[in-house]
């Protein structure tokens, strides 16, 4: 009898144990399913865990009832499905599916330059911004990362104020700088760069995720040749599902059309043949603009960005033309991968795109700018008027000549002493009119145009492939 009772008690105890394990599992699942929306509160503090659980559960019930509506709202607001982003860990790791040669490559970390990662943002969603920051912190070897500099370009979202400052204060090597008025991407980045203490500036967009091993190839390349601007391969993070698509095929390079719209191109055959292995960097005529690394001193030698560029758009081509014409180069490194959320549509307008591209054309395209004006017949007078207004001294069409202090000049081959950069570059390397088109190529004929960039003492071999854009 006693034996039977103790058996029953044993069974009962087992059943209770099983039940409690199941309950625990249920609560854990419930917690994990609702913890992400609470992530916005992580930096806020104040609420007790119990309160937070309670309100999360309430929120969750509400959201289950109308997730589609919330998703649509977040897409409407950010052009990115933030509802989904909020439910994905801020610390998720992207699998390193790069080519095996990239994964096998070893670096001498002590010989590599350090970097400051500069990230400007304007009204970015919490989870995409924070995931970018954590991704940099977690995918970059500490010995190479001097700091992350965040520049808040005068956002007005409440969560980007004290809540963000408080969150950031808990992270090592992350600094938050705020502009006093809306500056636009270019000036915001430049303000951030003034705080950088690393050897190399690495600019990232504010909704990115880095693949492990992303920074080493960029720093290695700049270590080999300081006058190189290096871009990672930009992988796609789906704006709706946040799935990460790694581009494992041969990377694309940047180009442009005569309206000065950035375009992607396959690697030209001539450059394909120049390479000795799949992991050699690939020369690129232009860059998309959001993600690149440049030696801080070389960037200063180049004259940084054109400060007259408003908001965004066009600055990427201007900097691309600038580096090639100033004797440097621009490359994509196939071993460096960074994911970027390409939004459903541009999250905010770029009304200054035309003005910005006119600046790029006027400064760097010399007589080729006529092709640009042929494609943009309307704005010529208006935008030129704007430029004149910006330069009342009447220095005509050469805006933003900046003074470069001697100490920033990287080598003896560069002009010494204070240099008015755009002009000195043009003098040193020749104006763009010295570029020659491939015989028979017609700028308006719809076929690709090859331009050859003369470089004193070197073979003029670099071809800039230009293809026609859509007709206006
Ligand atoms: Mn972006």
UniProtKB/TrEMBL annotation:
Cite the annotated pathway. Protein modification; protein glycosylation
UniProt GO BP: protein O-linked glycosylation via N-acetyl-galactosamine
Keyword annotations = Disulfide bond, Glycosyltransferase, Golgi apparatus, Lectin, Manganese, Membrane, Metal-binding, Signal-anchor, Transferase, Transmembrane, Transmembrane helix
Q: Where is the Glycosyltransferase 2-like domain?
A: 116-299
Its main subcellular localisation, reduced to a broad class, is: Golgi
SUPFAM superfamilies associated with the record: Nucleotide-diphospho-sugar transferases
Membrane-spanning segments: 12-29
Q: Where is this region: Disordered?
A: 33-68, 436-456
Kindly give the membrane topology term recorded for this protein: Single-pass type II membrane protein
For this UniProt entry, what's an example GO CC term? Golgi membrane
Q: Does the keyword Disulfide bond apply?
A: yes
Composition bias (Basic and acidic residues) maps to 48-68
Q: Which GO terms describe its molecular function?
A: carbohydrate binding; metal ion binding; polypeptide N-acetylgalactosaminyltransferase activity
Subcellular localization, as worded in the UniProt entry: Golgi apparatus membrane
Cofactor(s) it depends on: Mn(2+)
Q: Which family does it belong to?
A: Belongs to the glycosyltransferase 2 family. GalNAc-T subfamily.
From the Swiss-Prot or TrEMBL record, give the protein name. Glycosyltransferase 2-like domain-containing protein
**Taxonomy-wise, where does this protein's organism fall, top ranks first?**
Eukaryota, Metazoa, Chordata, Craniata, Vertebrata
């Amino acid at each position: 009898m006693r034996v039977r009772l103790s058996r029953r008690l044993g069974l009962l105890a087992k059943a209770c144990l099983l039940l409690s394990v199941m309950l625990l599992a249920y609560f854990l699942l419930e917690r994990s399913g609702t913890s992400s929306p609470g992530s916005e509160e992580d930096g806020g503090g104040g609420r007790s865990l119990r309160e937070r659980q309670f309100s999360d559960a309430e929120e969750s019930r509400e959201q289950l009832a109308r997730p589609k509506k919330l998703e649509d709202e977040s897409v409407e607001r950010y052009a990115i499905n933030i509802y989904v982003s909020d439910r994905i860990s801020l610390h998720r790791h992207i699998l390193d599916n790069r080519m095996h040669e990239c994964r096998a490559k070893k670096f001498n970390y002590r010989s590599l330059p350090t970097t400051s990662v500069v990230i400007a943002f304007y009204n970015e969603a919490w989870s995409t911004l924070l995931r970018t920051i954590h991704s940099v912190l977690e995918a970059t070897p500490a010995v190479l990362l001097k700091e992350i500099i965040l520049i808040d370009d005068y956002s007005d979202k409440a969560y980007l104020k004290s809540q963000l400052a408080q969150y950031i204060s808990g992270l090592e090597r992350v600094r938050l700088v705020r502009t006093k008025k809306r500056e636009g991407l270019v000036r915001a980045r430049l303000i951030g760069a003034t705080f950088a203490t690393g050897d190399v500036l690495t600019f990232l967009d504010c909704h990115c995720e880095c693949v492990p091993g992303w920074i080493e190839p960029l720093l290695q390349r700049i270590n080999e040749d300081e006058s190189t601007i290096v871009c990672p391969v930009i992988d796609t993070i789906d704006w709706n599902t946040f799935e990460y698509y790694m581009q494992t095929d041969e990377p694309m390079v940047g180009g442009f059309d005569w309206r000065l719209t950035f375009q992607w191109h396959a690697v030209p055959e001539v450059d394909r043949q120049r390479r000795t292995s799949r992991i050699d960097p690939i020369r690129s005529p232009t860059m998309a603009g959001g993600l690149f690394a440049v030696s801080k001193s070389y960037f200063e030698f180049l004259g940084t960005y054109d400060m007259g560029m408003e908001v965004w758009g066009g600055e990427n081509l201007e900097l691309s033309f600038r580096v090639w014409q100033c004797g440097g180069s621009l490359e994509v490194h196939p071993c460096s991968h960074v994911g970027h959320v390409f939004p459903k549509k541009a999250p905010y307008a770029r009304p200054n795109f035309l003005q910005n591209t006119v600046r790029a054309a006027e400064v760097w395209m010399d007589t080729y700018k006529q092709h640009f004006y042929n494609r943009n017949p309307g704005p010529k007078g208006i935008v030129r008027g704007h430029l004149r207004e910006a330069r009342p001294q009447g220095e005509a069409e050469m805006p933003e000549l900046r003074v470069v202090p001697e100490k920033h000049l990287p080598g003896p081959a560069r002009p010494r002493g204070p240099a008015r950069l755009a002009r000195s570059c043009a003098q040193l390397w020749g104006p763009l009119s010295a570029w020659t088109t491939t015989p028979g190529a017609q700028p308006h004929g719809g076929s690709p145009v090859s331009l050859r960039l003369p470089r004193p003492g070197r073979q003029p071999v670099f071809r800039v492939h230009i293809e026609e854009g859509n007709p206006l």
